[in-house]
Every structure is written in structure tokens, then in C-alpha cells.
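Continuing the batch. This is chain 6 of the set; chains 1 through 5 are on the previous pages. Same settings as before, nothing changed between runs. Recording input and output for traceability.
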Amino acid sequence: MIPPLLSIPFFSRNFGMSFDVIGFWYFVGICAMTTGLFWRHSRLPELVPSPRSLILQMLGTGLVFVGAAYGLQMWSIGIAPNPGLPTGVYSALGPVVFFSSIAVGKMPHARLRRHFGDVTRHATQAIGVLLVIPGGLLIAAGTELRLGNWLGLTLAAIPLMAVGQLGVRWFKAAHGIAQEVVMLWYFLGTLLAFLAWILAGGRGAHLLAAPSWGVPGMLLVGLTAGAAANWLMFKAVADAPNPGLAYSVYSGSAIGAYCGALAGAWLAPAYFPAAGGDAGKLAGIVLVMVGVLLIGGMWEYLTSVRRPGLPQPAQPPHLRI
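Output for chain 6:
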């Protein structure tokens, strides 16, 4: 995920592309590659689950919640002094999804309890929460909290994406829909959201107006790094003994994006914008990453690996789009 994160300020600086145009072509690339993989492996029939109303539900979730979340996230990355800062704050999505799953599992509805009621809780998860909070405060230090800046946009994106994350578990557990199928319909809805955003702002002509290699370059990012990252992430969530492990490890991309932006601005200042940051914000990103790992169950997983006689931990519903 580090190349897509760094590509947002890169294409904005060098090709004058707005975040919504960047996002549109990025998700075009992901959807095209994902559809091609389904065709290559003769899995196209899976894309049309029964009943057909499920397609509208997934598409609608992608359009309303996931699309809005990605739009706000890309906007925040584009205006932040360093793309690692909003990515670090955005890592708090993991704990939000984890504890939201616990709350949903406590609801009286029988199907909700069956699909969300298997979340285990450990003391190390409380320690993780205690690390995420000061880590987030360190990252946000010196930044005013308002909707128009990177911090406000990132925080607004988290609850929207949490709805999408819970939806992935619901579609998979309740309806048997593969996570890759949910991902594709989510991203098709996200495409529609970005297109509506662009047209509503009267910027339809901007979709093809990027100079030189702007559009094909961003399309290539989606076809390669974007598609690979999301496909592998969904597979990891499905195959890991604890889905929270896969998503928690993903939070490490914040450090990669933070350091990558600094390196790019130092090595190629003509192509990468100046990246701000300091030791305090980097320490905050590290604290958030460690906290998310603990909340996701990494400690319990590692201790069970060292002591194979112990039962494997249950699988909390941490899912990533």
C-alpha cells in the first residue's frame, strides 16, 4: 500500500490532478484488474450472487460509505504535510471496527449475535487502546481539529469505513459471498461516488485533462500496486488464523509512507513535495501501530505459536478494504 499512498502527492504535484480524479483512475485500475483475475480463473459467475438484491446492497455500501471514506482519506493525504500522518491516524480504524463488532455482537438480533458474537477480549487489547490514544495525540499535535484540514477529514472517514468493514463480515458470514467479490462491488460503488463528486463540481473534463502520463500513470498504479495490495489484503484476512492480525500488520504502512515521503522529498525534490514531520509524530505513528497490533490480537497469536499446545485464539472480525 505504500506506493499508492505516495502516488497521491506525486501525481498531484507533477500532473496537477485533484484527489478525486486520482482516486477515480486508481479504482478503475483496481476494478479492471480484479475483474480480469475473476475471468482468468473462471470465477465470473461468483460476481452475481443470489438473491440479486445483494448486489445493490454491496454497491450501495460502496457508494455511500466506502466511497465517501476513500474520498475523505485521499483528500486528507493530498493536503497533509506528510502522507504518513493521516495514514497513522487512520490506523485507528482497526480498534473502531473491533469494538464495534463487539457491540453489534451484543445486540438482541439472533443473526447478528451469531456472526459478530465470537470476538474474544484480552488484557493486552486494553493496553493497545492506551497506546493508540497518546499515539494519535502525538500525530495530531499542533494541528487544529476542523473538517477542512487533514486531521478532520481523516477522523470523518473512520466511522464511514467502519460501516463498510462490518458489512464485509456480514456479506461473507451471512450470505457466503467471497471477500474478493464484496471488494469488487464495493469499489465499483466507490467509482460511482468519485464520478459523482467530479461531475457535481463541474470537473468532468478533468478526467482526461491530466498532462502527459497523468491518467495512464495513475491507472497503472491501480492495475498493479493497488490491485495487488487490496487482493492480497483480502486474502490475508480470509486465511489468517485471526483476521485482526492481517489488518493490524497493515497499519505499518503508515511508517513506510511517512519515511518514504521524507526520502522522496530529499532524493527527488523536483518530483516529490516537501514532507514535514518530526520525531514526535514518528513516535506517535509507532505507538498507534503497536497499539493496533495488540488490539488485533498479535500478542495472543505469537504466544500461541511459541506454545503450540494452547488453543488458537478465536477470530475477531477485523476486515480491510
